[in-house]
Amino acid sequence: MELLPRSPAEFGSARYWDRFFRQRGQRPFEWYGAFPELCPVLHKYVRPRDKVLVVGCGNSELSEQMYDVGMCKDIVNIDISDAVIRQMQERSASTRPEMSYLLMDMLQMDFPDAHFQVVLDKGTLDALLTDEEEATLVKVDQMFAEISRVLQVGGRYLCVSLAQAHVLKKAVEYFSQEGWVVRVHQVASSGDKQQFVLPVFVYVMTKFRKIPGSAPQILEICPEEQDKPMRVESAERLVAAVKDRQHYALLCSQISKTPCREQVSLDLCDKESGRPRYTLHVVDSPLVKPSRDNHFAIFIIPQGRETEWLFGTEEGRRQLAASAGFGRLVTVALHREQHYEGMAGIQAELSGKVMELAPPGLPARQQVPFLSAGGDLGVRTVRHCDSSPLSGQYVVEDVKGDGTCYFRRLIFLRNRNVVQSEARLVAPAPLPGQKKRRKDKKKPGPTEPPGAIDKSYLCCEHHKAMVAGLCLLGGPDALPGELAVLVVGLGGGSLPLFVHDYFSQARVAVVEIDPSMLEVATHWFGFSQGDRMQVHVSDGLDYVAKLAAEAPAQYDAVMFDVDSKDLTVGMSCPPPAFVEKPFLQKVKTILKPEGLFVLNLVCRDAQLKESVLAALRDVFPLLYARRIKGEVNEILFCQPGPAGRRGPAELGARARALEGALRRPGRPWDSSYALADMLQAVQML
Questions:
Q1: Which of 123, 315, 372, 468 lies at a CB distance of 3.0 to 4.6 Å from 678, suitable for a disulfide?
Q2: Helix (H, G, I), strand (E, B), or coil: what is residue 530?
Q3: Using CA atoms, how far apart are residues 554 and 235, in angstroms rounded to an integer?
Q4: Cut 0.85: pTM above it
Q5: In this predicted structure, what is the pLDDT of residue 351?
Q6: 399: nearest Cα among 353, 358, 447, 359
Q7: CATH of range 8-250; options 3.90.1150.10, 3.40.50.150, 1.10.10.10, 3.50.50.60
């Protein structure tokens, strides 16, 4: 039986609706949900003594149910279909004497002005506004004008809709410009199989007298899980907020029916501030054979560890899900701007929402476990927040790593999942003559991080590889002697500090474009300048160009560890201008003949990466590459002359000699450095 129109325009045709209701018979046709879902919203805006007009009533049971539960009695229903009006009159005449059904066109109503306190529309606007043709918009304006005419001041127009963008935008713009208050409610789902995958919304437009001049618009949205409305500043933002909820509903519908081929990511935002509170990744493991107890689990990532490979990369999360042994694992990252009331509080807050992401086939009333690494939320202490014109907003925070170690991190909030700089924290050593802490004196809490920077420790694997590359300088059996090293990119200062402290004859010059980073490194990461360490606040491009023109061949090593501020490029380190051939020629010019250029390359664009490597080969005859396991970083070692070509055995011997020279009595040395191991996987390009 054909019930749908041949074209959307037929939705506005009385002839179509007559045919529709004759073919459908007595079965109610419920546009966009039934009374139980709509009742909580309607109850807020419909009072028992209100006179209510229902436009485009069809054969819905909504009016009958409102009447029967005592929500209101004085209800007038109108429709353009004679067939449905006669049907509804027969159905309610004897049982609902105060309710009436009239054959009437809502575009030309016979009611006097200000006759109703409520106008209720369930899907009628959606049926009329099927396109944005001029003729359609004229009809919609007529509809709105008539609704405005028959409503009293303070009356409410309640429009139940799927909230397509053009429908919502038209309603919001029309009534807000008339000075009405506009509020959009999302209707809570009953959990039953719905006719529509998209969520249902109710627009609540409250009529006020129009104030001459430019009165501020009042636009609000009320998500289904809360009563308190949230104010939004424009019609565009209101439409965008509704669209976010529609996308979420579509996502939940899709992943509840089929496994995810790709990992799905979404943010859950704080109700008050609108800022992200949780970041969720849905990871399916096709190799895990589902049983009753391993369908679904939630994994809470400890605070501060969301950037680790296991939690912060697709491959890491895939490995985590497989090792956990669940068919679907939802990882949950906690945001630094938010406060959390322990694991139990998070579980209570997330339980309802994460069940919307459950996999197909999850047994009814299945208990879903919440997991974590170490069973706690981790420790994150924000030490400093600020912003700079060049780097944007940034934060310095102390976090607890795996085990008992604490680390200080610098994060640029424009790329919050990337650690810009990191240093290990240690308890400060007592000063000479300082008395020991009295036993009865209160000790720091177990979650309070120590405050001193461990300058001997390189947290970043790519920094260890960059240091290992220095074995390419000097003789085969000894530490390089006096070194002149240029580092472009300061960050927290860990790399230049290590070179300065462990290469006792090295003179280190650092170029940093952002003066704020020098302040951060000095105040928060233990960086300091001296006779052998100087920082130049300058653009690295300009500084190198000036050196090439005025003081060539003066550096034994040039190291680039500089990030790109442009996130639209597929290369986050360095900025593209730093690896263009003319500039690389200038880098070669400032190197000594047997010098070394070390580049930290982070490039996800394969074509762009190949062009970078081609430019490097054109300028530097010798090119070695060291990929960092589990990271995108690749360290490139470039030398200006072919005489330095060395095989793996010689590289290993040089690295071991360098490591032996750096290991001096009384100087800390971490076993993870293993410089020879760092160079084992070096490839000559």
A1: 468
A2: strand
A3: 61
A4: no
A5: 85
A6: 447
A7: 3.40.50.150
Residue 576: what pLDDT?
A: 93
How many other CB atoms are found less than 10 A from the CB of residue 386? Answer: 12
C-alpha–C-alpha distance, residues 518 and 537, integer Å: 8
Q: Where are the alpha helices (DSSP H) in 78-133?
A: 82-92, 124-128
Count CA atoms closer than 13 A to 166's CA, side-chain side.
11
Q: Which CATH superfamily is domain 458-684 in?
A: Vaccinia Virus protein VP39 (3.40.50.150)
And the tokens for 183? 């509020």
Beta strand ranges found along 335-479 (DSSP E): 370-372, 380-388, 392-400, 406-412, 419-426, 452-453
Number of other CB atoms surrounding residue 421 within 10 Å = 27
DSSP output for 153-214: EEEEEEEEE---HHHHHHHHHHHHHTT-EEEEEEPPP-SSPPS-SSPPEEEEEE--PPPSS-
pLDDT for position 444: 46
**How far is Cα 190 from Cα 200, in angstroms, rounded to an integer?**
11
Domain ranges of the chain: 8-250, 258-372, 458-684
How far apart are alpha carbons 528 and 340 in whole angstroms? 36
In angstroms, what CA-CA distances link 416 with 199, 336, 396, 531, 561? 31, 10, 12, 35, 18
Predicted confidence at residue 663, as pLDDT, reads: 58
Q: How far apart are CA 355 and CA 169, in angstroms?
A: 32
User: What value, to the nearest 5°, has the Cα angle with vertex 381 and ends 330 and 409?
Assistant: 80
Query: Do 258-372 and 8-250 fall under one CATH topology?
Result: yes
274 φψ region: left (φ > 0), alpha (ψ -120 to 50), beta (else): left
Class of domain 258-372 (CATH, top level):
alpha beta
In the chain (685 residues long), the average pLDDT of successive 10-residue segments reads 38 48 50 80 94 92 92 94 90 90 95 96 91 93 96 96 92 92 84 61 92 79 76 89 86 83 86 83 84 84 86 88 89 89 88 86 82 80 91 90 84 83 78 50 53 85 86 61 90 92 88 94 93 95 94 92 82 92 95 92 89 93 82 87 62 64 57 55 56
Backbone angles phi, psi at 404, to 5 degrees: -105, 0
- The span from the CA of 259 to the CA of 12, in Å, is 40
Structure tokens at 326: 């669940």
